[in-house]
Design a protein that fits this description.
Two copies of one chain form a homodimer. Chain A is of the alpha/beta class and 229 residues long. Chain A contains nine helices and six strands; from the N terminus they run βαβααβαβααββααα. In chain A, helix 8 (178-195) runs antiparallel to helix 9.
């Protein structure tokens, strides 16, 4: 599976969360990192090039800061121009049909505010319906959105947990079994070990797999005992 | 009541519906027409000027083509920069609190597709929640959105009906009585008569008022008869 990670952020250098996530996926051959502001500083998008890039990938991800409950100006320009009539819609041919589409959003407000009665009034599922409707129109499979709430207030362990979920969003097959997840995680760790000096993260992740294994083993023992009685 | 009509359209000259609506509100002193692409062709927004303009108006309207279920790139840039920290949010002072906020959207697809089971999957109320959440955050009163579906397929009479609703969205006080509505409409017509040569529209609108009066008179007669029995 090949993933196209379309990042849009007006000031990405200043964003600690964006840098943290991006550093973790450098040198991954199955992920194409595609930062719009870097590629098109004057906002003139190469529509044909973008359309060809989309065709070559199986999973398309938008990554952006969730300002005013929506994407960035350049991401919207990209949507309007690249997914235009004749490519995105208005034709029987749907070049993106069957591909997966997902959102990764950096959010400054706490998760609990995104609900009825909360300060932000609506849930993330409600506020991202314009993107879900877009995936629907394009015939794409819509993935669960991945919102990262208040990255800067996170403890180190929570950051690492979030990083694992980030990798899953980018590279893990949809709805795979628990056993395959474990396999996937080990594969990811091996890849990361080759390209990084951040051994802390890897050690942490391996411990997590170990923990999960222990839990599953315990569960098995309980089941075995139940059937022996 | 003073209304600020913030229009954003990448190619407004080519949009027949935008031109039709704009022509109808020329020379109205209580509406400030504010076309972003015209004012800021290079996308560099004068944030302080915009914030001062907002403060001077009672009703703020965004008018835009509803591409990909959202606003335009420049409108999003305007939101992110003008409604930034310290003005829009992040401060106890809410300079826009109590003002009204509404949406006017030109939509190319038929209204019936905007529902569960329809091609667009969601309703306009669902898809515009990011704007509703913005109004909520700013402490503004959210008006019913005004979507204009498939303007170009409309018959002349339907276009004129839509135009009256457009004027209402821009200048009619919220939740006023039927009698006041009639008064409002007559006032609008008088204003328009002074500044336009489109007498057809005015004649049509006057006929509409007359029709409504007839209906109300009929209703009164029925009620009177009921109480006489």
């Amino acid at each position: 599976m090949r993933t196209l990670l379309i990042i849009s952020h007006p000031e990405i250098i200043e964003s600690g969360s964006q840098q943290y996530f991006l550093n973790s996926i450098k040198n991954q051959t199955d992920i194409t990192i595609h930062h719009l502001e870097h590629l098109y500083p004057d906002g003139r998008i190469d529509v044909v090039k973008e359309q060809n890039l989309l065709k070559k990938h199986d999973r398309i991800i938008f990554q952006f800061p969730f300002y005013w409950y929506s994407g960035t100006p350049l991401l919207k320009k990209w949507q309007d121009e690249v997914l235009g009539e004749g490519f995105g819609y208005g034709t029987r041919r749907k070049p993106l049909a069957g591909k997966e589409f997902g959102l990764i959003m950096m959010i400054g407000v706490a998760e609990r505010e995104y609900q009825a009665g909360g300060e932000e009034l609506f849930t993330i599922s409600e506020l991202t319906k314009p993107f879900q409707a877009m995936a629907n129109k394009l015939g794409m499979v819509y993935l669960r959105p991945f919102p990262v709430f208040q990255f800067f207030y996170m403890e180190e362990e929570e950051k690492k947990n979030t990083l694992i979920k980030y990798w899953q969003m980018l590279t893990m097959e949809k709805d795979i079994s628990l056993a395959t997840r474990e396999e996937w995680l080990i594969k990811q760790l091996q890849k990361t070990a080759e390209s990084t000096t951040e051994t802390n993260t890897i050690t942490f992740a391996i411990e997590r797999i170990q923990e999960n294994r222990d839990k599953i083993d315990e569960l098995k023992m309980v089941l075995d005992e139940m059937f022996l009685e």
